[in-house]
Specification:
Elements: E1 12-17, H1 21-32, E2 37-41, H2 49-52, E3 56-57, H3 68-79, H4 81-84, E4 96-100, H5 103-118, E5 124-127, H6 128-134, E6 144-148, E7 152-153, H7 159-170, E8 173-176, E9 180-186, E10 189-194, E11 199-208, H8 214-218, E12 224-225, E13 227-237, E14 247-250, E15 256-259, E16 265-268, E17 274-276, E18 281-283, H9 286-299, E19 308-319, E20 325-328, E21 335-339, H10 344-359, E22 375-376, H11 388-397, H12 405-411
Parallel strand pairs: 1-2, 1-11, 2-8, 4-14, 11-21
Antiparallel strand pairs: 3-7, 4-6, 5-6, 9-10, 10-11, 12-22, 13-16, 13-19, 14-15, 15-16, 17-18, 20-21
The protein binds flavin-adenine dinucleotide.
Flavin-adenine dinucleotide binds near residues 42, 180, 211 and 346.
Length: about 425
């Protein structure tokens, strides 16, 4: 059922720039709707954030109450991946605990979770003792926790392969190791220069799903975007005997922790590393590994004896107002963008479907986030690292004290 009439001379009905979870899902559903789709990925499918994330599917970390419906729906989609994606993504419904280590933190945790509870997430407040029953690995430090039985995870390293198979089956022309350079509008269709030889592809509709690199693609249209990139590091322990059975987070500060299927424990939570998305350079910031691990050991003392196996770096995109951009590109008829969806792995399969519907002129059941509010010719151009100002906004939105790494280190790390 094709809602579009392809422009004359267009080889494709739709072109997608970016093979992360957003671009891949959108391409899959456009193709399944009968459109001829080409997808460009400068590296390989899900090489960036969509493959190197922690795989945590947390309803409690939904960045805002408005995104809760996306998270709830996408959780079901990851669970049911064998049906629609053709791959078992090793989904686990572990249940998630977010820990408060003091009465002040408990109050802030409740304020944050009340909003998500009102938006439909089943969240219960439990005592520290009850939390330890649910997760025996916990220390005696938590005084209160929020508990969501729906939280869980899946295995992100499988994501690229899963989409590659599904996209091939759906007939999408997937072009990996092909970077899109210039894009122009020529009459009713887009002219896309892709790859080192600058080969040209034409398409009637365009989706920009380029993650942290979206500013480079927008430059073709003379547009800027009020977004920054943020660099996160993930710490992975050696394989341990079964130790942690739930997703763990903390009310104040940055910790996400869980034990993977293979026994390794993934420890992260938003601690900065260094990266230059323009060149691909990455560098671990050891000064941020130490407090991250201290906080982890404060929550789960058994980790004190664990050895670190490796640390990796990933780049994510943050909008100036922390809300996503999902919808039409302002001033460029036929172009669309998905960008800056925080916790975008959790919500990706839902967001990708929504934008695919919009691109077919259908009315989605989920809200759009008008890109025009942050994209325009006068907005900042180029790749920009996260500023102190936007970090402060993250903290404010979390309704917590602005927990700098140093504060976390001293408030929890000293006891660890
Ligand atoms: C370390 C880390 C941990 C995270 N943990 C979690 C988590 O536990 N749970 C959760 O929900 N979220 C998590 N996230 C966030 C989540 O991974 C992202 O929100 C999500 O993957 C974004 O998907 P995307 O498709 O928008 O972007 P990406 O996955 O970054 O995909 C964009 C793609 O576009 C390609 N591209 C860019 N420019 C071009 C071009 N010119 N031509 C061709 N291709 C191009 C890139 O190579 C890239 O592959 C984490 C992120 C990081 C970095």
């Amino acid at each position: 059922v094709i809602a579009l009439t392809p422009a004359r001379g267009a080889a494709f009905d739709a072109a997608v720039i970016g093979g992360g979870v957003m671009g891949c899902t959108a391409a899959l559903y456009l193709a399944r709707a009968g459109l001829r789709v080409v997808l460009f990925e400068r590296r390989f499918l899900c090489a960036e954030a969509s493959g190197v994330n922690a795989g945590t599917l947390s309803m409690q970390h939904a960045p805002s109450a408005e995104l809760v419906p996306f998270a709830l729906k996408a959780r079901e989609l990851w669970r049911d991946a064998p049906q629609w994606l053709g791959t078992d993504m090793r989904y686990r419904q572990l249940g998630g605990l977010v820990l408060a280590f003091s009465d002040d933190e408990a109050a802030r945790l409740k304020a944050k979770m009340d909003v998500r509870r009102d938006a439909g997430v089943p969240i219960e407040y439990i005592s520290g003792a009850r939390a330890r029953e649910l997760e025996p690995a916990l220390s005696a430090h938590p005084v209160l926790a929020s508990w969501c039985p729906l939280d869980g995870d899946c295995y992100p390293v499988l994501t690229g392969g899963a989409y590659r198979r599904a996209l091939a089956e759906a007939g999408v022309d997937v072009r990996e190791a092909v970077k899109v350079g210039r894009v122009a509008k020529d009459g009713a269709h887009f002219v896309i220069e892709a790859g080192a030889d600058g080969a040209v592809v034409r398409a009637a509709r365009l989706l920009i799903a380029a993650g942290a690199w979206a500013p480079q693609v927008l430059a073709s249209f003379g547009l800027g975007i009020d977004m920054t990139y943020k660099v996160n590091q993930m710490v992975v322990t050696e394989r341990l005997a079964p130790t942690v059975t739930r997703n763990l987070g903390v009310a104040d500060g940055n910790l996400s922790l869980k034990q993977a299927i293979n026994g390794t424990v993934l420890i992260g939570g938003g601690w900065d590393g260094r990266a230059d998305p323009a060149t691909g350079m990455t560098e671990v910031m050891v000064e941020n590994v130490v407090p991250n691990l201290r906080l982890a050991c404060h929550a789960v003392p058994a980790l004190r004896d664990a050895r670190i196996q490796r640390i990796w770096i990933g780049v994510r995109d943050h909008s100036a107002d922390l809300l996503p951009l999902i919808g039409p590109l302002p001033g460029v008829d036929g172009a669309f963008i998905v960008s800056c969806v925080r916790e975008g792995y959790t919500t990706g399969p839902c967001v990708g479907r929504v934008i695919a519907e919009v691109m077919q002129d259908r009315e989605p059941d989920f809200p759009l986030y008008d890109p025009a509010r942050l994209i325009g010719p006068d907005r900042p151009k180029g790749l920009r690292p996260e500023s102190a100002a936007s970090l402060a906004l993250v903290a404010a939105q979390a309704q917590a004290n602005t927990p700098t790494p140093t504060q976390i280190y001293t408030s929890h790390g000293a006891n660890a």
